[in-house]
Specification:
This protein is mainly alpha-helical and 646 residues long. 54% of the residues lie in helices and 5% in strands. It has helices at residues 8-30, 83-92, 98-104, 106-124, 127-142, 159-171, 175-188, 190-204, 213-217, 220-243, 305-325, 334-357, 366-398, 404-420, 423-426, 433-453, 459-463, 470-495, 504-513, 532-536, 551-561, 566-576, 590-594, 603-611; strands at 66-68, 76-78, 427-428, 431-432, 521-524, 539-540, 580-584, 627-631, 634-638. The strands form three sheets. It has a five-stranded mixed β-sheet, with helices on one face. It has a two-stranded antiparallel ribbon with strand order 1-2. A two-stranded antiparallel sheet has the order 3-4. α2 packs across α7, α7 (175-188) packs parallel to α10 and α11 (305-325) runs parallel beside α13.
Length: 646
């Protein structure tokens, strides 16, 4: 982009607006080291950039990240799947803590993305459209959840940015810049680069003519696409090789682990069952594919229900635009349609490969649709909204009943969500969003009845230009302001769903655990230690968040947590080198056990069948004198002290 002096002020105002919008959401979290996107827990190992002695006995080393041996200096620490993202945090580690830096990233990504969206709008339409796209992208992103957002500071937060950048460069025919954008995307978030290449390829296909295939192959777009495919393949080959285990001989130097801890597990990370019969992927499993089949889940169109609601909002707005503008609404740039087709192709391809080889080699299908569908619907809305506003009043005067069909469709969607969407997933910050959906449905019902009963205007009335009184304009402005405020309030509530904010007792636990030796290995009630690795920076055998894939360790640990004698617990601690146990006494209460939901399947069912007739759990009644820490129902004990319990 080459800024024009006439729009330089617009750049500045859009950048400031983006920063203010990000600050509005991030400000309460910036000064709190415990408030961060929940998925950032998988990057706990970034702490090793600043202190290599941490996590010396980490069961996740070699799976989530590796140490590549170098002839000089310390081993190179990386996840291999996102070299650029890892290096970015490594470089920032000289100044910022990883958690803080993840919350600062949106202040950079959001303005960049908004400016590229603005420039794309200038290319395809006009200045007003570009403003709508830029500001609209910011507003919709503020209400996007962890899955579709540039706000969370994760790898996937770069996906929308790279996709928007590619669309701009393809539309502007700046193919060298498009190659660079694709390669950088491959370094940060591989699914984004794959979707970008598919979009680029489909955008170039319409120019193909069999009689001119030689000229087509030599075109700038195809030549640069071929270069991008080759170079991206080279970058992603490291990830594929790592998945195949070829790097195993060159990574992860031998660790001085306790006996049994360093032994290779004979249990595969993913059981050999098919995706649809494997309990890990089914209801109650740790990697549940569908929460609402076939829309919501890791194998669905979107990951989270909140993203589905955002898509439905965009879909409803797009349907209203189609009713008003008809076929004219579909006159979008070729690259936008190419992105939509590429999104659907990659979604199907990811599922096809997974069903054939029983492995998500092309990553989870939802990783493609959650970016491509959101961006397509947003661009469809943003490019057409100005024409819609101009034409809608005339349509309402001529044929208001035409909009009844849209209202009826929205009512059906709302009714379906109220009836079939899980209530626990619809509850945000204690508020059941189904009540809000019900109120929205009631308002649309009133609107539908009013439109249906209103007689169409006469031809003479329809031909008159719409004139609004000052009072009407004021009312419209007030309604618009209320809608914006309501949307921003909705955004702040929605984003809290995906952000950690542990209570005071958990924070006290993290502070205590951080005082333990750096080589300590911690186990205990799985969900009570979810964030120990990130906040206390100590190794965890496994948790509800990090299962580490060792089925035998999980089974043995769960049996030990609910054992009736200390001997079973002692044997478990010795076998897996566990030093300390974190216990949540509430997990032994009759009310908790009655829920039949202790851990993920298939382990949950196995454990319940064993403890069904058990009357005593030794870890639930430990004497206070051996507890190193206690705050409410949570306490910490040292495995070596358990032999003092009768």
């Amino acid at each position: 982009m080459q800024p024009d002096k006439k729009i330089l002020k617009t750049y500045i105002w859009l950048s400031l607006l983006s920063i203010i919008g990000v600050a509005w959401l991030q400000w309460p979290r910036l000064g709190d080291p415990y408030r961060v996107d929940e998925d950032f827990r998988t990057f706990y190992w970034f702490a090793k950039f600043q202190n290599p002695a941490l996590f010396s006995h980490d069961p996740d080393q070699g799976m989530r990240y590796v140490e590549i041996l170098r002839p000089w200096g310390k081993p190179f620490l990386t996840s291999i799947f996102s070299l650029g993202y890892d290096f970015l945090f490594y470089a920032a580690g000289f100044v910022f803590e990883p958690i803080l830096f993840s919350k600062l990233l949106p202040f950079i990504l959001m303005p960049i993305t908004v400016l590229y969206v603005f420039e794309f709008g200038r290319l395809v339409r006009d200045h007003n459209t570009s403003l709508v796209l830029g500001i609209g992208f910011l507003l919709f992103n503020l209400a996007a959840s962890s899955a579709v957002s540039v706000l969370n500071g994760l790898q996937r937060s770069f996906a929308l940015t790279f996709m928007v950048v590619l669309l701009y460069y393809l539309q502007a025919q700046k193919y060298k810049s498009a190659v660079v954008a694709t390669l950088v995307a491959a370094l940060f978030y591989p699914p984004a680069s794959v979707l970008m290449l598919a979009t680029w390829g489909l955008a170039a296909l319409p120019s193909l003519r069999l009689s001119h295939i030689g000229v087509w192959l030599q075109s700038r777009a195809v030549v640069h696409l071929g270069l991008a495919v080759i170079l991206t393949g080279v970058i992603l080959s490291a990830s594929v090789i790592h998945l195949l285990g070829v790097f195993d001989a060159f990574t992860n130097p031998a660790q001085t682990a306790p006996e049994g801890l360093a032994e290779a597990s004979d249990v595969k990370t993913e059981p050999s069952d098919s995706l649809f019969t494997n309990p890990v992927y089914g209801p109650g499993g740790s990697v549940e594919l569908f929460y609402v089949f076939p829309l919501v889940g890791r194998g669905g169109i979107v990951d989270l229900g909140e993203d589905l609601i955002n898509l439905l909002i965009l879909l409803a707005l797009s349907g209203l635009i189609v009713l008003v503008q008809g076929r004219a609404a579909f006159k979008l740039p070729q690259v936008v349609w190419a992105m939509l087709i590429a999104t659907l192709v990659m979604f199907v391809a990811a599922w096809f490969v997974a069903l054939i080889i029983n492995n998500f080699l092309l990553y989870l299908p939802s990783r493609y649709t959650r970016v491509g569908l959101f961006l397509f619907l947003f661009l469809f809305f943003g490019v057409n909204i100005i024409d819609f506003v101009k034409e809608a009043p005339g349509l309402l005067r001529r044929n208001p009943r035409r909009l009844v069909w849209l209202v009826a469709g929205i009512e059906l969607v709302i009714l379906g969500l109220i009836l079939f969407y899980p209530t626990e997933s619809a509850t945000i910050s204690g508020l059941n969003m189904k009540w809000l959906l019900g109120l929205t449905g009631l308002l649309f019902s009133v609107l539908g009845v009013a439109l249906y009963r209103r007689p169409p205007a006469s031809p003479a009335q329809s031909s008159r230009p719409a004139t609004l009184s000052p009072l009407t304009k004021g009312v419209i402005g007030l309604i618009g302001a209320i809608c914006v405020i309501g949307w921003l309030t909705y955004a702040s509530i929605l984003t809290e769903v995906s952000y950690l904010n542990p209570p005071s007792e958990e924070r006290a636990l993290f502070n205590f655990l951080s005082t333990l030796p750096t080589d300590a290995v911690i186990a205990g009630t799985p969900c009570a230690i979810n964030s120990v690795e990130l906040f206390a920076r100590r190794s965890v055998l496994f948790s509800c968040e990090q299962s580490h894939g060792d089925s035998r360790a999980i089974r043995t640990a769960l049996m030990a947590y609910y054992a009736a004698d200390t001997q079973t617990i002692g044997q478990f601690c010795a076998e897996y080198g566990v030093n300390y146990l974190v216990i949540d006494r509430q997990s032994y209460s009759p009310e908790y056990l009655a829920q039949n939901d202790i851990y993920f399947e298939p382990y949950n069912h196995e454990l319940l069948s064993v403890i069904a007739r058990q009357d005593r759990f030794i870890l639930a009644d430990l004497p206070d004198e051996i507890k190193l820490f206690q705050n409410g129902p949570i306490y910490v004990v040292e495995c070596a002290q358990l032999n003092k319990v009768d």
